[in-house]
Structure formats: C-alpha cells, structure tokens
Amino acid sequence: MSGYRFFKYQPPEDNRSAFERLLDIFMQLLSFTAGDVAEALDWLNQLDRKHGLTNNDYGMGDFIEDLKRNGYIQENPVNGQISLTPKSEQTIRRRALDEIFGKLKKSRQGNHQTNFSGLGDEQTPDRRQYQFGDSLDQIAMTDSMRNAQINHGIGSFMLTEDDLEVQENLYKTQTSTVLMIDISHSMILYGEDRITPAKKVAMALAELITTKYPKDTLDIIVFGNDAWQINIKDLPYLTVGPYHTNTVAGLELAMDLLRRRKANNKQIFMITDGKPTCLKIGARYYKNSWGLDRKIINRTLTLAAQCRKLKIPVTTFMIASDPYLQKFVRDFTQANQGKAFYSGLDQLGEFIFEDYERNRRKRVR
Questions:
Q1: Which one, 35, 134, 150, 233, has least CB within 10 Å?
Q2: By the 8 A CB rule, do 252 and 227 touch?
Q3: Tell me: the pLDDT tens digits for 297-322?
Q4: Are 209 and 345 members of one domain?
Q5: What range does the domain containing 31 cover?
C-alpha cells in the first residue's frame, strides 16, 4: 500500500555552548531595545522563566559575567550602568549581515568589475596593439621586444610604435551609496515595528560594504522633521522619534554628501513607510499629516528630478502597502527615473541587497 510514513521530528543537535546559545538571543534582543543592555537582559530573563533557557549548571548570572569577560558589555565603575562595547556593535552588524544576506566571505578588496577594458587595476591575459594615450605602465615589454625581433630582425634591431603591445586591464567601479532611513513616528504606529527591520538592513549593508567592498562608501541618514547623518556605530541605538516625515531634508543632505564623493556610481536608497508630511521653510516647519499636501509633494518631486540630472538614481523601499501612497511613489520614481519596491518587512533586506549588487555593476558615463 502506497502512502507516507511520518516520524517524530527530531530537531538538529545544537553543539554550541550555553553561552553561545544565549548570546545569539541576546544580540537579537539588542536590535529591538535599541542597544539598551538592561532592557535586553530583562527580556532575556523573562524568556528564561518562560522557556527554561538556563539550568543549574549555567545560570543567567554566569552569562552576564561571561559577557563582561569576553568584552561584549562594560560596566561604569561610578554609577554601575552597563553599556555595549565596540565589539558588541560589530557583532550585531555581522549577525545582521549573516541573517539577511547570508554568510559572505571577506574578500581581499572591493571587486566591482565591469565589461569595459582600459586603464584599471585588474590585469587580464589579453593583449592589443598600442594606441595613442595608453599608459607606459600598460606596455607588455616582453611581447613588444619579441614583435620587434620578428618585424625587423636581430641584426638591425629597432622598436617602433607598431611593435608595441598593451596588456588589457579591467575597470573596477566604485560605488557611493547614501541610505536614508525614515524615523518618523509612523514607523512604530499600528502595532507594527518597522524601524527594527530597517535598522537591521542598514547594519547588514554597512557590514557588507566595509568587509566585501571596502573601496565603496556608505553614508547613513535618518530623517524626521529634519535630517542628519549618523555613524555606523550608532545604528544599534537608532530609535523612532515624535517626528513628521521631511523627505526633502533627507534628499538635500543625501545630494550634498554625494557631491563630495568622487565615485562615478552614486545612488540613494530610501526606506520609508509613508508620505512626506513636513517641510522646513526658513526657521518654520510646514506640516500636514492629513493627505498628500501639494506644497510638500511638489518640492519633493523637484528634488527627485534634480537627482536625475545629477545621475543619482533613487530607489524607494516602501514598507507599507497603503494604496493611496502608490501614486506618489510612482510620480516620484518617474521624476527621478529610479526604482521603487513595495516591500514587506521580511523582504526588505533581500530587495536592497539585490539592487545594490545590480547597481554597482553599472558604469555611469
């Protein structure tokens, strides 16, 4: 008789130590608590009481001592406050990279190869005839000398331009990326945590670039009523504020940062969940949360067009599915000639990774 035979599920054996198992959970909790060690430990204790994460041989006190001994947390001797160390900040970024992008091996240097040959830093076995303007460093001397002997003979040796051969090199493109993260209050409204996935993606992208593509640059901007730049080490502590959404301020700052970059490939990734609702005019904030305000929208679309003229594509990752916002996103994308993704929270990292990999292969003339 044909059919299926079912067996009791046996989970794979976990050979990690008790400290490593708890560390994995602790690092995940830190992303939700914005780097607050005390709150993360409190949540971990609650999970321990409910699910029995520790035992008589290894308790929560042992885990905290191991965190200190291994350099993950540090205690202020004056007030006893516990905080993260740079080692923990890097560990959170690395784990975010492993979670979202998969385990990527650290490369020797950033490899942004293109199909264009010429003066570059990646040698190939191909040869071609010398052309005016080629660098002397590119001349393959052994091959050129052989050509001279064949063409003119050994007795009357001479080396002419027609004898010269040049070794082909490949360009290696360099990409400058600005990541804009919306930290307006709507990122935590309606019982949905949207800031934590956005923060994880930013940490993963930062770790990806610094380890695999160190020649690339990544600037991170947060925008609410205003926009300001943050450092990579600040990402675990990023929180949402009581802000409106000033997309214009974010785009203006992003364009200013990219103007200073010398790379040919420049791009903006914008993670947001809603429409622009704020504009700063002089020292005054113009705000309207009730619909698509024409004054704010027109200014935003004007900046999208300016980015297009500067050859800076903007890729918008909309992590909300409100139908009435789709028209604004379509208008913004059309003005910039960029791209837009309507992403769920679980797909955000995949979309950004694929788009980053695709864009860095393009050569902007």
A1: 150
A2: yes
A3: 999 999 999 999 999 999 888 876 66
A4: yes
A5: 18-84
